[in-house]
Design goal:
With 234 residues, this protein is α+β, with helices and mostly antiparallel strands. The protein has three domains: 3-55, Structural Genomics Hypothetical 15.5 Kd Protein In mrcA-pckA Intergenic Region, Chain A (Roll), CATH 3.10.290; 62-125 and 207-231, Pseudouridine synthase I, catalytic domain, N-terminal subdomain (Alpha-Beta Plaits), CATH 3.30.70.580; 131-205, Alpha-L RNA-binding motif (Alpha-Beta Plaits), CATH 3.30.70.1560. The protein has helices at residues 3-9, 15-23, 89-92, 116-123, 143-151, 185-192, 224-231; strands at 27-29, 32-33, 48-50, 53-55, 62-67, 97-98, 107-113, 131-137, 154-155, 158-159, 164-167, 173-178, 197-205, 208-209, 219-221. Helix 1 (3-9) crosses helix 2 (15-23).
């Protein structure tokens, strides 16, 4: 792989910026200064540094974001702010996209990646990953609501998969676990029960839980263990 491609695929430097950094002596390969951006490197074997800091190559990048309200789950939109705008420019250049969607006013766990194969598997009907949401609602829930979710409701005449509704004590909040993702699904299910969601937050996706230290709008890279949790979804 060419050195300029190495940096551009990581979103660290554009090819033009790599050329300038190389000419300025800012890049080393295996301890030797390299001034030719066309120099070929082995991402798995060669030690590459930029301004004295080691740069490790990863084919794919995975990010956890605590999505705030008001952002849409897309990479671009002509009118509304998108979740990728919450990431630094370096990551925006890497082609990250949200794995799945959250409504504009829904907050919480969102995974962004540039791994199309894994994203497709996590979202496909055959391998649909579990999603857990914390909610608050207007009317008190009872056992009949729990049963309705468990037995399977219908939206637009189509049957839904069984869902787990777990109200907290008091019945005005709790969690819902889904294995599918229809348009505004939880809100519409509650409306069918004569109820209304007032707050919705995704707290888990594909076995991966939202980091409680992330404030809304903050992000971090997934650890290797967390990536393994996502890739284990079959």
């Amino acid at each position: 792989m060419r050195l300029d491609k190495f940096f551009s695929e990581l979103g660290i430097l554009s090819r033009k910026e790599t050329q300038a950094a190389a000419r300025a002596g800012m890049i080393t390969v295996n301890g030797n200064v390299v001034k030719d951006p066309a120099r070929h490197v082995d991402p798995d074997a060669d030690a590459v540094t930029l301004r004295g800091e080691r740069v490790c190559y990863r084919k794919f990048t995975y990010v956890m974001l605590n999505k705030p309200a008001g952002y849409i789950s897309a990479t671009e939109d002509g009118n509304l702010p998108v979740v990728t705008s919450l990431l630094p420019e370096q990551l925006q250049r890497m082609g990250l996209f949200p794995c799945g969607r959250l409504d504009r006013d829904t907050v919480g766990l969102m995974i962004l990646m540039n791994d199309g194969v894994l994203s497709h598997r996590l979202l496909s009907p055959r391998h649909h990953a579990k999603k857990v949401y914390f909610f608050r609602c207007e009317a008190r829930l009872d056992e009949s609501d729990v049963s309705a979710f468990r037995e399977g409701m219908k939206l637009d005449g189509e049957p839904l998969k069984s869902a787990v509704l777990s109200p907290d004590k008091g019945g005005l909040s709790g969690t819902v676990t889904l294995t599918e993702g229809k348009y505004h699904q939880i809100k519409r299910m509650f409306l069918q029960r004569g109820n209304k969601i007032t707050y919705l937050k995704r707290v888990s996706f594909g076995g991966l839980s939202l980091d409680p230290t992330l404030a809304e709008g903050e992000w971090r890279y997934l650890s290797d263990d967390e990536i393994a949790i996502l890739t284990a979804n079959e």
